[in-house]
Amino acid sequence: MHELYTVLAEYYDTIYRRRAERVRDEIDFMEELFRKEAEREVKKILDLACGTGIPTLELARRGYNVVGLDLHEEMLTVARRKAEREGLSVEFIQGDALESDFEEEFDAITMFFSSITYFDDSTIHELFNSVKRGLKPGGLFIADFPCWHYGGSSPVVWDERKGDERLIITDWREVEPAFQKLRFKRLVQIVKPDGSVRAFMVDDELNIYTPREMRLLAGKHFRKVKIYGDGHELRPNDRRYWLVAVK
Length: 247
Ligand SMILES: C[S@@+](CC[C@H](N)C(=O)[O-])C[C@H]1O[C@@H](n2cnc3c(N)ncnc32)[C@H](O)[C@@H]1O
Prior knowledge:
This protein has 247 residues and is α/β, with parallel strands linked by helices. The chain folds into two domains: 2-148 and 209-246, Vaccinia Virus protein VP39 (Rossmann fold), CATH 3.40.50.150; 150-207, N-terminal domain of TfIIb (Single Sheet), CATH 2.20.25. The protein is built from eight helices and eleven strands. The longest helix has 15 residues, at 23-37. Bound molecules: S-adenosylmethionine (SAM). S-adenosylmethionine binds at residues 5, 49-51, 54-55, 70-72, 75, 96-98, 112-115, 118.
């Protein structure tokens, strides 16, 4: 997984351009969840696994006091540069989501774009403990995760542009139902105007959770847990879910 968040960090926003364009809708929905579910006013937010800050910066634009935390310094370098360019004040911290030592500091903790699925059956409990420690009483934890159908048909190919470079991205996705793993191999080809190509092969592995499993796991740690669909109450054919948990 690491190449995507290290050597390719500068290309992350380009690879996920279409997702970056959706972020305002995601934060609209999150604000709706704040209004519906939070038991305290949300002012201060910790965005865990914040990456290059796509959602973190949108939260800051809307006036929240935001801290972003990520494992990879290369992702944070991109995030800090974008914040500076926009004149947004966001603190970006390098660290492991499992080891953050915040104590009752945040009204909400967020974790966007399937980052929660990097945690498996054992580490997800450590994650929930760490999140709970960082939240004030009545604070909210919100994280989105994909439906296992996400594997879809393979390969998935798309292309994007970054300046005068062209990126061709090819994903081979495979669901292992017995182990509930989504594995993917991703080939990222960066083509320069002179035709020269740099190619990177990236492996990744995500954990698949059904809405019921996530509700049961989070229910061991949080007072109230609800699973939403993508932008609304859970529906039978949702392809993305939102965990909303109250400390
Ligand atoms: C799919 S990206 C999502 C980034 C960002 N949340 C977004 O919405 O664009 C996953 C991120 O999780 C980070 N990550 C993975 N494991 C982590 C951990 N244990 N602690 C903190 N960040 C982690 C990676 O460095 C990467 O930036």
